[in-house]
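Worked Example 4.2. Consider the chain below.
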Amino acid sequence: MATSTMVHVRVDEQIKAQATETLAAMGLSVSDAVRVFLMRVIADKQMPFALKVPNVETRAAMTQADEISRTRRARFDTAAELFDDLEKNSRQ
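Applying the procedure from the previous section yields the following structure tokens:
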């Protein structure tokens, strides 16, 4: 049997609790998930998911969405309300 070593990771307590619950539903522990992650890194020789920096257009949209959310302007309960508002404002 191979020897094992400890990996210590600092993570927000709430994130750990939510991840632990989600993984348990899959029959995995946090340690199991970390082992699976590391095995994928080894097998693929890369991260097991794409890491991308948002482009200029996406960053601008994210900033705009944050501003809208922060100021709470133009909030709609349904898509129909949104489209009605867009049509009304496009006539002005």
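The chain has a mean pLDDT of 90. Residues 13-44 form one domain. Compare this with Example 4.1 before moving on.
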